Amino acid sequence: MSDGKGRYWFSQLTPKEWLIFAVGGISFAFDTYVLLILSLVVQPALSEVLPVKPGTPIFNMWVGRLFYIPAVCGGVFGLLGGYLIDRFGRLRLMFWSVIVYGFATAAAGLATSAYQLLLFRCVAFVGVSIAFVSSLAWLAEIFPDRERREGVIGYTQAFGSTGGLSVSGAYFVAVTLSARMPLIHGEHAPWRYTLLTGLIPAVLLLATRAFLPESPLWLGEKQKGWPKRPSFRELFSPELRKTALLTTLMTACAYAGSFGTLQHVARIVPGLPGIRELSHTAQQQAVSGYQALEEFGGLFGRLIMAYLVVRIMNRKRLLQAFVLPGLLLVPLVFFLPAFHDTNMSKIGIFAIGIVVVAQFTFWGNYLPMVYPTHLRGTGEGLSANVGGRMLGTSAAMLTTSLANFAPGGTTFRQLAFAAGAVGALSFAVGLIASIWLPEPPKEILLD
């Protein structure tokens, strides 16, 4: 939207603000890059470091562990990180958290056991959890004007899907060119080369750190001597309790739609008709293709949400416009291959990517507006990390556990059924909870 003089919010950004915009976009892109990298490498990585076959109960147990235990660590330490963001600064915590998850992801590429993979994944997830919350608070407070703030946060989060596309591309290149790359532990393993690319965000942030300002609102609170200090207890005061509980639950539903459903497509695809007969390399290339469809859908969804969030003030209706279609799409797309051994709809995967990932942008814009400055990081940490990273991603373990008992006849079809059931449940709970979602206050930012 324009400011009444024919100018749009992005035309008013200064060169320094464009740099802030770019760094925010890079941060969100690699947050997603590091999160989604596991869905591509988990099967080949565990196939190498475990003495069991894919699809067996022990293999599924380790898949669940790698998805869920790091998420628990991310939730716990992410909540603590939110408190530290309020105490020690948005930019400082964002910088160090990106450094941590970049090096931890690369270290996982050198792992020789499942326990090492799990350890480095836990460290990386903690870094991502803190980086996401600190980036949101930082951008919201640097751009206090509503239209510029909503535009900047919305469109920088759209870079999150470019991170997903990038990791799909990186994996495809690693699979295709692995024979030409240096040996790691005596093998040309594409999953290892893909994990090593986790160093990229650390290098980029190191190059720009000196040019980035701290949040002026946070600095103002610091200069006042902290008249109000962050407190976990305050989140459950009468004024904030409803908001804190609802956003925690609904953010969990959004993440469950991704981790309980979309994140398992990479393991379902090799068992689809016409793909299961192909060579291993061709199967993995097909996996990359489906992953790219998810990410293109997610990018489209983020862009739609970023456009609408500036123009539609009713947040409840905006969210429901994405959740309701998801409730209808997920069973249709996942149950058909589970019961009829048919190919999974590529258009359906693209559409589910839209409605799932758009919700992440919604919460990224919504959460900074419902907590006061001294409590912004702590509140975002509760909703995004405990709700999203910890509770929501537990859907991955729920899906892998349910797959052991689901109908279908083959491990691939059982997994498709389980993913569809968990996804439908997450959308249903999110839709019901949205009835009580409070609208953010009309003030630019709470102080």
Helices, strands, pairings?
Elements: H1 15-49, H2 57-88, H3 90-108, H4 114-142, H5 146-177, H6 190-196, H7 199-208, H8 216-223, H9 241-259, H10 265-268, H11 280-311, H12 315-340, H13 346-366, H14 376-392, H15 394-403, H16 411-433
Helix pairs in contact: 1-2, 1-4, 1-5, 1-6, 1-7, 2-3, 2-4, 2-14, 2-15, 3-4, 3-7, 4-5, 4-14, 5-6, 5-11, 5-13, 9-13, 9-14, 9-16, 11-13, 12-13, 12-16, 15-16
Characterization of the model:
With 447 residues, this protein is mainly alpha-helical. It has one domain: Up-down Bundle (Growth Hormone, Chain: A). The protein has 16 helices and no strands. The chain starts with 14 loop residues before the first helix and ends in a 14-residue tail after the last helix. The relative contact order is 0.15. Mean pLDDT is 86; it is low at 1-7.
Beta-strand segment tally = 0
Q: In the CATH hierarchy, what is the class?
A: Mainly Alpha
From the coordinates shown, what is the CATH architecture? Up-down Bundle
How is the biggest beta sheet arranged? none
The rounded Rg comes to: 21 Å
Low-confidence stretches: 1-7
- Cα distance spanning the termini: 26 Å
